[in-house]
Design brief:
Blueprint (H helix, E strand, L loop, with lengths): L1 H15 L6 H4 L3 H8 L1 H13 L13
């Protein structure tokens, strides 16, 4: 768990220091992620993401 927290903290620190760069664009492809945070951090983030069980976003109701 500490390894995952460390990878996430490292990635957030690196992303927050990049002026005028969109994190959505950065995480749009693995190559961009590696370019931004480095291969080791990207690998750790991807390993954590594969194991994470995230709840789906609720869909907005369209009851007009």
């Amino acid at each position: 768990m500490a390894l995952e927290a460390g990878a996430l903290a490292d990635a957030i620190a690196r992303l927050s220091l990049l002026p005028r760069r969109s994190w959505i664009l950065i995480v749009s492809s693995i190559d961009r992620l590696i370019e931004t945070v480095g291969e080791e951090t990207a690998e750790r983030l991807l390993a954590v993401a594969e194991q994470a069980e995230l709840a789906q976003r609720p869909r907005p109701r369209l009851d007009w």
